[in-house]
Amino acid sequence: MPVITPFRRPPRTAEDPDTPEAPSLPPLRALQARLAHWRAWRTRHPRAALAVRRTTTALAAVLVLGALLLPNTLVALEPNRFARIPAEAVIGTVLLLCLPRVPRLVLAALLGTGLGALTVLNLLDMGFTQYLGRGFNVVLDWGLLDDARSYVADSMGGAAAAWAAVGAVLGVLLLPALTALAAVRLGELLAAHRERAARGALMAATVWMTCVALGVQTFGVPVATRSASGALEAQAHRVVDTLRDEAAFAEEAKADRFGATPGAQLVPDLRGKDVIFTFIESYGRSALEDPVMAPGVGRTLDTGAEALAEAGFGARSGWLTSSTYGGSSWLGHSTFMSGLWVDNQQRYRTVTAGDHLTLTKAFGKTGDWDTVGVMPGVQKAWPEAEWYGLDKVYDAFDVGYEGPKFSWSTMPDQYALEAFQRLEHGRERDKPLMAEIILTSSHQPWAPLPEMVGWDEIGDGSVFDGIEASGVRASDVIADSTRSKEQYGKSVEYSITSLVQWLERYGTDDTVLVFLGDHQPITRVSGDKASRDVPVSIVARDPEVLDAIDGWNWTEGLEPARDAPVWRMSSFRDRFLTAYGSTPHPTED
């Protein structure tokens, strides 16, 4: 009989692509195989392996110490900040040395992850301080990150915004992971050299306490520091203060000095007047006092005041301290209109969800004014219009603009004002008009900028195509402080010129214009220690309108004197209502 032998498949070769894949190793087996391969490599190349270990350890130490010593403001980001002894490093070393292996690994990973998260918050603090003049609020400010992405997209393009968002997400995810791995690496190194590490920790603790006791400094900063725990403590206090403030402000918003005043007793001295409240984006004290911007802006204000005087208008000007800085314009707008100090997003949500009387709503409550808003920066649903008391709101899509955007600004101020004239101010009407207008051409990054054109040439805005195309690019100025200041000054000059020329051209004996800045520009332009003051002016042809505010001691003209009165922006509503004959009827909380 023939012998039958079983068939055996030949072994798979690289030249046999159709051979089925062998079953993959389980994850644990695969990890063990990789570790074995690494150990074999270390055995074959001991010097290279030693270099890798030392480099990895050095990088881990640099990362952990750098995170512990990292300040939370750009102005403090100097080399001397990293030549100090962090108390947290000493305490962490002692804790890790006292634990057996598994608890030590867990603690090191937790400490490293927490340190990475704190580093992310410190970086957010840097950005918020640079742009908004305050630290990041972990309770309220997450929603502003989407606004930041939109700002980058409007200023630098969608691709830049997408890459920035991807980079930010990767950084938030990777940084805590890297600091955790670094802390584990250092923890294992300490355990491997326990005696020397213990002596070193004792010496470091002794030096730290001695430096604290004697106030020892190097390069102008204390040698001993607890900056990481201090930053964590500050974040915790910020959270607690925010939660307490939410409840306190809700009670404060219920009380209103003019909340129960009948419409017939509100602003009786302005009956028959067209009253226009206009905010100029980022128009702050720095525009009038910084040596780079002030000469051009000052000339523009002087020229405007002279032109308005020839047209029969007078003006008075003072200062208001804004509730916001560098951005978040809606906080300044709501503070000015409500008479409440609205300096964060929670306060804004609280006040706009209530029925607190705004200046704009006061005019509507009388029944003697039509109320409208011109909001070129609004590009989505804006339910706050009801709280402001505006009968009609014209957003970026309602004014017929067909021209180009100028960076963040959807249209030039000159076009927005001409559209207001065409759609509302120039129409025959049964009632006078109360309007709130937001001018956006002076919004950062101030490039490219529009230029004045003939008012009769504005049309649908296409006339601005060539101006935008030939303008300075945002990327050329956004990181250059001097160029940013120059462009910012030009943008304010343009906004003021547009408003003054509009008033010259279309103002009447019954026009009352109140215009002001909503906040100071960002730190790169206004400076590290700039105030939050913004100019405010009231312009009218009727002398009785200006006589009513004689007691305010404001400066004659469009430029307030440096020593002109400075009020909190939240005080303007009550002063204005009182000056023009309103009778207080408070509502109680």
Automatic annotation (TrEMBL):
Keyword Transmembrane helix found: yes
Region (Disordered): 1-26
Domain of life: Bacteria
High-level lineage: Bacteria, Bacillati, Actinomycetota, Actinomycetes, Kitasatosporales
Membrane-traversing stretches: 51-70, 82-99, 106-124, 160-184, 196-216
Protein name per Swiss-Prot or TrEMBL: CDP-alcohol phosphatidyltransferase
UniProt keyword list: Membrane, Transferase, Transmembrane, Transmembrane helix
Matches recorded under InterPro entries: Alkaline_phosphatase_core_sf
An example Gene Ontology molecular-function term: transferase activity
Keyword Transferase: yes
